[in-house]
Amino acid sequence: MTIINLDPAYTEPSLLANAVKSQGFGVLSPTGLATLLDSPLSNLESIKASWDDLPLDNFLKDGGRYRRRRHSSFIANDKTLTQVPHRAHYQPLEYNALHGGMLRMFEPISESTVGRPVWSTLLLTLAQVCSTIKEEQPWHIEAHQFRIDTSNGIGRPTPEGAHRDGVDFVAILLAARENVSGGESRIFEFNGRHGQRFTLSEPWQLLLLDDQRVIHESTPIQPTATGGHRDTLVLTFRAGGFLEPAN
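-> structure tokens emitted (247 positions)
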């Protein structure tokens, strides 16, 4: 059976905020992201090796061993990015029926990664796009490095299925995709019938979502050769504070 990957329709970098306002999401090409950041893609390539050093995610309730990750938290305030003391990742059950309600403590993203200038440039630039959409304010950012691998068969980027994250905006940055099929991005209106589907297949494509307006998922990946994996950086932006358990 032939699997056809649908390419995303790219947004002009200067129109990213407009696209998210009008349709709930926008996708940048790798060159579009470089333009938005005013930084060459080689700077992003400098952090690519860090995906080879992600610990296993031991919280998967399906018993899988297909996901590796690191997690750190930041606050973007105007032109300043501050990393906060390491904290657990939390989502309410209403947003993540599979893994919600748990405090999940992952290993932090390495100092060598967050210390590179392109890291601050990426987070602060996307925070400014969020402010263009929803007014200037401090943004509470959670950064997740993911590797979904197929060494044991099928890997699931979103084992919880189609979901929202309980934040304002979600950015999904593809870092690598090697020897796999599948991994289609699917986006649906939260209060509507319409949806979009496409496959991120080139390193440094960026998908930015309005988490209040759309739900999203990525379909499972399957190996096409040894060493199959899909690497992403997921950044969530939330006004008013990080998601925490209710007192």
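The first strand starts at residue 25 and ends at 28.
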